[in-house]
Amino acid sequence: MVKADAPSVVHEDDDLLMVDKPGGLVCHSASRDEHPTLVAWVREHGVATPRLINRLDRETSGLVVVAKNERAGKILGKAVLRREIEKTYTAVCWGELRQDSGVIDQPIAVASAGVVYTKRVVDPAGKPSLTQFTVTTRLRGFTVVELRPQTGRAHQLRVHMAWLGHAIVGDKIYGPDERWYLKFIEHGVTNEMLTELLLPRHALHAGGVRLRHPGDGTWRTFQAELPDDMRDFIAGNS
């Protein structure tokens, strides 16, 4: 498995805890209590009943919003339903995008066929899904993009970029071959895998969150710096 570094606190007050989750750490686990989770770390940090307002895939790094009490949790939960929490991601994608920016408006559904049961696909019968993208850096054979999801479907950004023809580097499901995911589950990261996928995790980072603070109602913006693995990959392909 991808070994996770320790989370770090970006901001904390009486109502809110903003955590920078490393890639490789699950937010929570219903069946594998022996593995580290972000929820367990937050409890050890002193929040007895963590209320995660957003969740990230195991391999996605970046900001997770934690409400520290029930009142804050209810306020932020309603903000999620009203789509009032703005999130910004950075991704390194295969290939060179021609467009400087655009909107991907494609519905997403659970795949009816395939070797990975959690896989999602663009499907006319799926749920409405909207992603805004902006190119920030063009590399040699890769593109760094800023992604702003307007909906919150599972795997949305990874599915949409793959549909666009520019899958996220390191993605074991939506990259070159979904069977890499099964091999990863069985054997972990191997040299053979790195030869094809280039990174031990997918290069997706939740770097920005903007929300109304549940205490005073003012708009706040929080940032988490790009992690070393993505920064080094970008530098090595510039």
Write down the overall mean pLDDT. 95
Question: In the CATH scheme, what's the topology name?
Answer: Pseudouridine synthase
Integer-rounded radius of gyration:
18 Å
Task: Give the CA-CA distance, first to last residue.
Answer: 28 Å
SSE-based structural type: alpha+beta
User: What is the CATH class name?
Assistant: Alpha Beta
Unreliable parts = none
H/E order of the elements?
EEHEEHEEEEEEHHHEEH
Number of helices: 6
Domains (count): 1
- What's the β-strand tally? 12
Biggest sheet details? 10 strands, mixed
Q: Into which percent range does the helicity of residues fall?
A: 10-25%
Please tell me the CATH architecture by its name.
2-Layer Sandwich
Q: Going by CATH, what is the homologous superfamily?
A: Pseudouridine synthase
Q: What is the overall shape?
A: globular
Sequence-ordered SSE layout with sheet pairings:
Blueprint: E1 8-12, E2 16-21, H1 38-45, E3 51-52, E4 61-67, H2 70-81, E5 86-94, E6 101-105, E7 108-110, E8 120-122, E9 130-138, E10 142-149, H3 156-163, H4 179-187, H5 191-197, E11 204-212, E12 219-223, H6 228-236
Parallel strand pairs: 4-11
Antiparallel strand pairs: 1-2, 2-4, 3-4, 5-10, 5-11, 6-9, 7-8, 9-10, 11-12
Describe the structure.
- The protein is of the alpha+beta class and 238 residues long.
- The chain has helices spanning 38-45, 70-81, 156-163, 179-187, 191-197, 228-236, and strands at residues 8-12, 16-21, 51-52, 61-67, 86-94, 101-105, 108-110, 120-122, 130-138, 142-149, 204-212, 219-223.
- It has one domain: Pseudouridine synthase (2-Layer Sandwich).
- Helices cover 22% and strands 30% of the residues.
- Strands 1, 2, 3, 4, 5, 6, 9, 10, 11 and 12 form a ten-stranded mixed β-sheet that branches. It has a two-stranded antiparallel sheet with strand order 7-8.
- The longest helix is centred in the first third of the chain and has 12 residues, at 70-81.
- The model has no long low-confidence stretch (mean pLDDT 95).
